[in-house]
Each structure stands twice: as structure tokens, then as C-alpha cells.
Design goal:
The protein has twelve helices and twelve strands. The protein has 376 residues and is an alpha/beta fold. The radius of gyration is 21 Å and the shape is globular.
């Protein structure tokens, strides 16, 4: 029993240190100044599969960009959509001739988001690459802010902020708060020079970087992870990677509306982390998983053994405080403070999901994703 208590306290303190480092890093990130008037050209790579529901909103946000339309080229790559995505895309693009755009299709034998992004970059004529998803909506200053961030300190890659759309109910609140925590870690870790995470919904980098790193060579067989694999390669090659925390660079994506969708997404994420072979991610995942389990077990076992003390709840309180700080920062910066009302229910839901996910990873080796069965 004493071993469990000491372990719980030690992990709680370690997580508190990690949280403070992330917060310091987030606050250190420089906000890009207004874009200087330079002749810059950007290719926005947008892979998609069966996104007919989201394409109109995506295009609406892209057409409103403050970045000069003559400098933007939208490169859409279809990953074998079976709905009306391509038809809707062509119809909406036909009415906006002031924007340059291209639509490419993956060959029959080639599938997956990595292949789509790879094709888009090979077809892109511009040196600056912005990558996003087709189910996203972008701040009107998104392209301008992310591009300018690339030129602060001659950066090779920029990690941008991502949040989920507003919604009602626990799952909407949980999805937002989880994404807020991931956003804090992604931008905060980049802020201290040790980037851990990023999102393919909001990335900027130079085409030269992608080609120098060999693109997705060596991990093309993994269905997801276009963002994390490229980040890992960039880290190992000593490239300059920065975060961009300003609301002007914000990208908003949809949230998972069912527990099944949430668990499926977590299985994919966990599976790709196992393939990335980054000891830092393994350590962080181990810390969070063991801390979640011991935080629950310590007060239960101490109560059953008759040795319960209020001190046994301290690690739980510390975990709650650290999690709150991690989600508060993005909620404050991006003006989503009302979402914090869901914090406590979402916190305990997450504890349940961590344990459930562990069982699923052992029992299930494949998940359904965009109409395909993919390995985890």
C-alpha cells in the first residue's frame, strides 16, 4: 500500500513539473507581426475523403483569407471519395476564379492521407506549404499568420493551434477540453524547443524541408500520422520548429459526437505513437496512464484497508489542477471559457476512457476509419 501511495505522489509531482514547463513554453511563443508586403506564394494542401458535408464551410473560410488571393494556391487531393465531395468542390471553385486551385485524385492502388498529402506537395509549385483537413474552418488571418510565423527566426516548421467547434453536451465539452490540452502541449513544448505533438489540421513548413526529410518514406504503410511522423523526422534532423499561439492562426475542426468515435480516434493515435518510436512520447503516455490508474486506486485501496487519509487525495487534486491549467490557457486565449464548465465531468470521463482504451488496445487490432478498416 505504501508503494502505491509513494508512486502516486511521485507521479503527481512529476506531472506538475511537466505542466509548468508546458505553460511557460506556451507563453514564450512569439506572436507573428502583421505580414510584411512581400511577394510570397503559398500552396494549401487539403487531402479529403467523403467530406461533402464539410467542404462548403471549408471553402467559405478559405475564400475569406486576408492573404492576397494571387499568392494562394489550393491543392485538393481526393482519397477515393464515394460521395459527392468532388462534384461539390468543382461547383464551388468554379464560381471563384480569382483563386488558383487544383484537384488531384490518388491512383487506384494508392490510398491514405499520407499518400494524398505527398501527391499534393509534389504537385505544388510554391515553396511554402500549409496543410489542413477538409473538415476544418479557418480564421481569416490563418494563412497570413502561419506564413509569417515561418519567417520568424528562419523557422522550418510551424505548429498551429487547433480547437473543436462549439457544441452542446458532455461529449462536445470533453472533445473541446481534450483538444485544448493537446494544443497546450503541442505549442508549449515547441515553445521550449522540444516539440512533442502537432496536428495535421494546422501545419506550415517549407517544401524543401519535406523533400530533405524524404517525406513519409519509411512510414507510408501507417494509415494516419502524417503530422507526427514528419515532426519526428524534423526533430531528429535538428530542424527549427516553432509554435504559433495567436488566435489569428486558429483552425477549428469538428468533434467526435459518440464515445465509439472518441475511442476509435484514440486507438489510432496510440497506434501511431507506438510506430513513431519517440521515447519522450512513450514516457509521457506512461506517466499519464499510470497516474490516472494510481490516482483512482490509491483512495479506494486505502479506504478498504482502513488506513484512509485526506492526504491520499492530494495526487488527485494535483492532477485536477494540472489538467485545468493545461485547458484554461487555450480557453482563455481563444475565448472559450464557458467550456470550462464541463471540466470536472470531462476529467472523470477521461479517467474512464484511459482505462477502457487500454483494454481495447489489447483486444482490438483494427478500427474503422473513413469507411476503411485500418490497423492500430
Amino acid at each position: 500500500m505504501e508503494t502505491l501511495i509513494y508512486t502516486n505522489f511521485s507521479l503527481g509531482l512529476l506531472f506538475a513539473v511537466f505542466t509548468m514547463i508546458v505553460i511557460i513554453g506556451f507563453l514564450k511563443v512569439q506572436k507573428p507581426a502583421k505580414m510584411e508586403k512581400r511577394d510570397r506564394h503559398v500552396s494549401v494542401i487539403i487531402p479529403f475523403r467523403n467530406e461533402e458535408e464539410h467542404i462548403p464551410q471549408l471553402l467559405d473560410s478559405l475564400f475569406k483569407q486576408t492573404f492576397p488571393s494571387t499568392g494562394l494556391n489550393f491543392v485538393f487531393v481526393d482519397d477515393h471519395s464515394t460521395d459527392g465531395s468532388c462534384r461539390i468542390l468543382r461547383e464551388l471553385l468554379a464560381g471563384r476564379r480569382e483563386f488558383r486551385s487544383d484537384l488531384f485524385h490518388l491512383e487506384n492502388a494508392v490510398v491514405g492521407k499520407k499518400a494524398a498529402v505527398d501527391l499534393g506537395i509534389r504537385k505544388a509549385g510554391e515553396e511554402i506549404i500549409l496543410v489542413t483537413d477538409a473538415d476544418c474552418v479557418h480564421s481569416i488571418h490563418w494563412a497570413e499568420s502561419m506564413t509569417e510565423a515561418l519567417f520568424i527566426g528562419n523557422t522550418d516548421m510551424v505548429i498551429g493551434p487547433v480547437e473543436t467547434i462549439r457544441g452542446n453536451g458532455l461529449l462536445a465539452g470533453y472533445s473541446y477540453l481534450e483538444q485544448a490540452g493537446l494544443c497546450s502541449v503541442a505549442i508549449g513544448s515547441a515553445g521550449i524547443g522540444y516539440p512533442l505533438l502537432c496536428s495535421g489540421a494546422n501545419l506550415a513548413y517549407k517544401k524543401e524541408l519535406f523533400n530533405t526529410l524524404g517525406g513519409y518514406e519509411g512510414n507510408m504503410d501507417v494509415p494516419s500520422g502524417d503530422d507526427m511522423f514528419l515532426l519526428r523526422k524534423a526533430c531528429l534532423s535538428g530542424k527549427r520548429i516553432a509554435g504559433c499561439s495567436g488566435s489569428e492562426a486558429l483552425v477549428t475542426t469538428r468533434f467526435n459526437s459518440t464515445l465509439r468515435e472518441i475511442l476509435t480516434q484514440r486507438q489510432r493515435w496510440t497506434g501511431k505513437i507506438g510506430r513513431i518510436a519517440d521515447i519522450r512520447l512513450f514516457a509521457l503516455g506512461f506517466l499519464l496512464t499510470v497516474l490516472s490508474v494510481t490516482t483512482v486506486l490509491t483512495p479506494i485501496f486505502s479506504a478498504l484497508s482502513g488506513s484512509f487519509s485526506a492526504w491520499h487525495l492530494v495526487p488527485l487534486g494535483l492532477k485536477i489542477l494540472c489538467d485545468f491549467l493545461l485547458v484554461f490557457l487555450p480557453a482563455f486565449v481563444y475565448r472559450r471559457l464557458p467550456e470550462l464548465l464541463w471540466f470536472l465531468p470531462a476529467f472523470f470521463l477521461n479517467m474512464f476512457l484511459v482505462i477502457t482504451l487500454g483494454a481495447l488496445l489489447i483486444a482490438r487490432k483494427k478500427v474503422d476509419w473513413k469507411g476503411r478498416s485500418v490497423p492500430t
